[in-house]
Design a protein that fits this description.
Low-confidence stretches: 1-5
Strand content: under 5%
Mean pLDDT: 79
Distance between the termini: 57 Å
Radius of gyration: 25 Å
Largest sheet: 2 strands, parallel
Number of helices: 6
Strand order of the largest sheet: 1-2
Helix content: 55-70%
Order of helices and strands: EHHHEHHH
Length: 124
């Protein structure tokens, strides 16, 4: 079982329907059986539509559990931002790779320039 409980409640990727009950069980360290039993009890006593609406809202609000375990604070921050705004995360990645590409081009220009060759031959 993965430990994501420190940062929030996640929907489980291996749950039966949207993974809400399994995600709640993992977060609160309960048995999945008891969480599902409570959900079924609420379904019976509150009526189908209120319980169904609450369950669907929970499925929409809860973020899915990361497919790859999060190991560092930077990875956790990226995952949190990605799940809240995928467009912004994609823009951030695009900017980061563009700056890396510019740095690599500058390095290539320096290494392949004639001045670099002469400096290397002279021992500088």
């Amino acid at each position: 079982m993965r430990d994501y409980s420190r940062r929030g409640i996640y929907r489980s990727r291996s749950g039966a329907i949207f993974g809400v009950c399994r995600g709640l069980a993992q977060h609160f360290d309960f048995s999945v059986f008891w969480v599902r039993a409570i959900a079924a009890t609420l379904l019976v006593f509150s009526g189908i539509w209120p319980a169904l609406i609450i369950y669907l809202l929970a499925a929409l609000i809860m973020k899915p559990e990361p497919a790859i375990p999060v190991e560092s604070a930077g990875e956790r921050e990226f995952y949190e931002r990605y799940t809240s705004s995928r467009h912004d995360a994609a823009q951030r990645l695009r900017r980061r790779y563009e700056t890396l590409e510019k740095r690599i081009r500058r390095m290539e220009d320096t290494v392949t320039s004639r001045a670099y060759g002469w400096e290397k031959r002279m021992g500088r």
